[in-house]
Structures are given as structure tokens and as C-alpha cells.
Amino acid sequence: MIVALCCALWLCGPMAADVFLPVDRDFATVCPASDLDQRPPDPSSSECETITAFQVDPQDKHIWAFYNLNIDSLPVGEPLGLTISAKASSHVFLNGAPIGENGIPASQRRDETVGRMDVIFPIFVDQLHMGDNTVAVRMSSHRGYLKLMAPVHNIAVSTYAIPQDRMFRSYGLSLLPFGAFMLAAIYFLTMVGLGGQKITSGLLGGLSLVAAIQLLFEVDRGLTAYAYPFQDIRLIAITTCSAVFGLGLAVYIIFRFRPQSAWPLVPGTIGAVLLALFMTPGFDGKASFALLVPTMIAAGVALSAVRTEPRAAITITAGLLAFALINFFGAGRFLDQYFYFAVAALMLVLFALQASTLAHEQALRRMEQGRAEKLQFVLDELNAPEAEFAISVKSGTQTRRIAAEAIAYIKGAGDYAELVLQTGETHLHSTTLADLESELPAYFLRVHRSYFVNTRLIDRLQRHPSGTGELSLTSDQTVPVSRRIMPKVKAAMA
Question: Could you tell me which of 85, 79, 90 has the C-alpha nearest to residue 163?
């Protein structure tokens, strides 16, 4: 956290002294342009119209856009530049004088030379004057793949700096969680290969990888000076990653808490995300709602499991709701920065819970393996002589000793053990199976969570399609066998 704060101060601190004078966003004048135009036309012409700066759209067009830049005081001592961030090729004039070209705008696609998405043209302070200044931009955008609502992002006079440096100050902080995402992806995908919780581990590994890919597309604007058509690819990639991450998160929660309801819940979540993508305007909105909708569904699924798994359900529900609130109230900054730190925090919670589950599962596997090996040994030594053993069972004021050989099997009954004799007679013994396990002779084996069996009475083994089994005893009694220990029992009985 301290490292992140220091990086934030380093990235954001120097920007405080920068000059930043944006054009008037309330209105702009748009006029048709020609390939022969060398100078800006008269903006008062009847062919021109006044609109808001947000509505200026050069997509599939060739236009002049006139902006007003009002300056209260002239900056002194700072190298200045005119920044253009737009999905367009452009030719820029300041107060009637040309200051630079970004590609070559044209009326036809074949004649246009693609410009960069973000560019800055150096200017001198004597090119500006107090009061109103005019920025005229001839622009066209024929080579994109999408129709954006606001293709012109920013036009401003600012301290001269490479646009990618300025962008990186905004996006760069998001790179901090990248290493965490990659480590999480490697860990969980490795667990899939080792056979631990394959579905949920695979989903968490995939989520981490998708978040890392989305982060790279997000910060790419601060790393490379790409041509403007790539902006469409970048937006598609970010939105797709957001939707995939949201769906993956919901599917993980569904399989974590409600696997039996996966069929109605997963298709329903996919439909809800597709509807959000279709109904929400703007790619920032699409990406945001593609995350918000499945997150809320996942929170509802987690909350529904609060009775069966209270600790995990409450923890995950709280994390998901916090993630959704950051998304909802973070507005435009969510996808730029907050998202990745929120994902890192959420993944940390999921990582801890999943790691705990995997550790518990591995412990159970080791325990079952030990029991299976013990069963193998005992079945091979069924005819070996054993010392006499009896269990003292209290009944009222009397104590009865029951020979171990007379017992067919022992069944767990809470804090008691139910001794079932070969005759069918039962006796309740005030001890747990765990305490009794170390006292019983070796020919008694735990073949199920709640059963010990006298292996000397085993007659045959029946295996069920589900992977579990059933031991038939010579005393005409049956004992269930758990799925995990079934292979060893089968091998021993072969």
C-alpha cells in the first residue's frame, strides 16, 4: 500500500503545475471541408452550423471544426503545445496560422493518410493572445471500425509533453496489480493441472489472465503512439475483457455455491450481460455494465448460500458488493484505475478462500490415501493372528465387554459410536469414531466418513456408477464405501 501511494505521488505530483487550457466545450462550429482547402473557411458561412464540442463528429466525413479558446492570462516560462486527442486525421490552425498535420485528412478513404490518436503540436506563447483565440481543425475519419458517440476526446493548450507521457501518468498506476494478476493466473492454472478444484481453479486462473490482458489494453494508450483506427480495437478488447471477466466471476460464484443450479443461472447471466451490452450507449458504459450486472447476480448467489457456508458466503458477498459500488460510483475513473485495484482486492479474497479449500481438499486426500493404504495392508493380512480385543460399553450401572470379532461394523452417531454385532444387535458407545480409530485392531478399517468395518467379514464388493461402493459382509449386512477410497478397496478385493 505504501509503495502504491509513493508511485501515485510520483506519477501525479508533477502534473499539478502543468498548464492546461481546454477549448470551450459548450459550442463549436462545423463546416464542410474539401481536399483543396489550404486555409480555414469563413465559419459564419451558411454551410456551417453551431453545435456543442461533444457533437463534433468527423467519422466518415471531411469537416472543419472551429473551437474557441479563451485565455485570461498568458502562460510564461513554459514550453507550450496544442494537444489533439481524436479518432481522426487532422490539419490544425491556431488563430489562422497552420501549426501542424496529423496524417492527411481527405474526403475519400483512399486519399486519407491515417493520423495518430493522440498528438501534440508545439506552439509559442506569442501565437496566443488574451481573450478569445480560434482553433480550426480540418479532420476526417474514414478508416475506423466503429461509430463512436464522441470521437473527439480533447483539444487543449497545455505544457508541452509527449501525449503518451501524460496518458501514462493517468493510466500507469494501473500497472501495479499486473504482476499480481499474472502470479494468480499461474498459480490457479497450475492447480488445474494438479487436479485441485479444476472448475473453480480454472475460472480463477482465467479471470486473472483476462484482467491482466484488459489492463495491458487499457494502459497501451500511455505506452504507444498508435494510429487512430487502433482505438476501436482497443475499445472492443476492453469491453470484451470486461464482459468475459464479469461472466467468469459470476460462473465461478455459481459453481462455488450453487453448482446444482448452474444450468438456469449461467445461461441467464450470459443473457443479462448481452442485454446490458446491447442496451447501454458508449463503450465505457458497456464495459462498466458488463461488469456490474454479473457482479450483482454473483452477489445474490453468494448471499443465498449464507446458511450453508456463512463465513465464505458473507465474505464474498461483501467483496462483490464493494466491487459493484466502486464500479457504480467511480464513473469514468473506474475502468481507468479503480477497476484493477478493486479486482486485485477481490481476487485476493477469492484466492484466500480457494487456497483454503484446496488445502482442505489436499488434507482429505492425504487422509484418504493413508486409509486406503491401511486397508490394502489389512486385506493382505486378513489371516494374520490378532491379539484379543474387547470394548467396554456402559449401560446404566452395568459395563459390558464386547469382543471385537463379534462386531460387524461401527457407525458414527454424533458424539457416540454405534456398535453393530454380527447378530444384528446394536450397542451405543460414548466415544467418537476419531477417538475409537486408534484403539481398534488393524482388521477394522474406516471405509467411509461414518463407518468402520470388520474386514474379516467382507464377502464381496459392489461398485456403483457414481464411484461409491458397498461391502457385503458374511453376516448379511452391508457397509457403504466412499468414492475416494473405492479404487483401493477394488484393487484389494481383486
Answer: 85
Instruction: Tell me the Ramachandran region of residue 172: left when phi exceeds 0, alpha when psi lies from -120 to 50, beta otherwise.
Output: alpha
Cα–Cα separations (whole angstroms), residue 41 to 37, 61, 388? 8, 16, 111
- Cα–Cα distance measured from residue 192 to residue 180, given in angstroms and rounded to the nearest whole number: 18
For residue 295, count CB atoms less than 10 angstroms from its CB and return exposed for 0-12, middle for 13-18, buried for 19 or more: buried
pLDDT in tens, 98-151: 999 999 999 999 999 999 999 999 999 999 999 999 999 999 999 999 999 999
The DSSP bridge partners found for residue 480 are: 470
Q: What residues does 157 pair with on adjacent strands?
A: 21, 82
Q: Please say whether the beta carbons of 63 and 32 come within 8 A.
A: yes
List Cβ neighbours of 324 (8 Å cut-off, separation of 6 or more): 292, 295, 296, 299
Of the pLDDT bands very low, low, confident and very high (cuts 50, 70, 90), residue 369 is confident
- For 17, 189, 211, the CA distances from 352, given in Å and listed in that order, are 43, 16, 18
- Helix or strand (DSSP H, E) at 369: helix 339-380
Q: In which order are the strands placed within the sheet that holds 469-473?
A: 458-463, 469-473, 478-481
Give the Å distances, CA to CA, from 172 to 130, 215, 459.
35, 10, 70
d(CA 479, CA 422): 13
pLDDT tens for each residue of 56-75 = 999 999 999 999 999 998 88
Q: Which residues does residue 94 pair with via DSSP β-bridges, in sequence order?
A: 97, 135
Give the pLDDT confidence of 471-489 residue by residue, as tens digits: 999 889 999 988 887 776 7
Q: What pLDDT shows up at residue 318?
A: 92
Residue 461 has pLDDT above 60, yes or no: yes
CB-CB contact of 122 with 134 (8 Å): no
Do residues 318 and 310 touch, judged by C-beta distance below 8 A? Answer: no
Of 220, 280, 276, residue with least CA distance to 247: 276
pTM of the model: 0.69
